[in-house]
Amino acid sequence: MKRLLFSSVLIILLCLILLSSGCGQKPQFTLTIGVEGDGTTLPKPGKYTYGENTVVTLKA
Fold first, then answer.
1. What is the pLDDT of residues 17-54, one digit of tens each?
2. Does 7 fall in a domain?
3. Which domain holds residue 34?
4. CB–CB of 55/49 below 8 Å?
5. 34, 38, 9: which is closest to 1 by C-alpha?
6. pTM for the structure as a whole
7. N or C: which end of the chain has fewer CB within 10 A?
8. 48 domain residue, yes or no
9. Between 14 and 57, where is the model more confident?
10. Domain count of the fold of the chain
């Protein structure tokens, strides 16, 4: 009986760990924009975070 209870608890814990391990979250990427000299950019210089497969327009 104790062995069955232990096995059941272990299986439940493993399932919870797998479900909460970040499944479904898309990777995030950081775009760092900087300017040398008198140049300008749009968006402004800085760090921007985007999700996977995001199309980013950059004007310089």
1. 777 766 667 889 999 999 999 989 999 999 999 999 99
2. no
3. 25-60
4. no
5. 9
6. 0.57
7. N
8. yes
9. 57
10. 1
Query: Token pair 């104790």 is at which residue?
Result: 2
Q: Is residue 34 part of a domain?
A: yes
| Dist CA 28 CA 34 (whole Å) | 20
Residue 45: what pLDDT?
A: 94
Rounded-to-5 percentages of helix, strand, coil across the chain: 30, 25, 45
Spatial distance between the Cα atoms of 40 and 35, rounded to a whole number of angstroms: 7
Q: Using CA atoms, how far apart are residues 26 and 51, in angstroms rounded to an integer?
A: 6
Q: How many CA atoms lie within 13 A of 55 on its CB side?
A: 0
User: SS3 for 14-35, per residue?
Assistant: HHHHHHCCCCCCCCEEEEEECC
Q: Residue 11: helix, strand or coil by DSSP?
A: helix
Residue 34: both structure tokens together: 């900087």
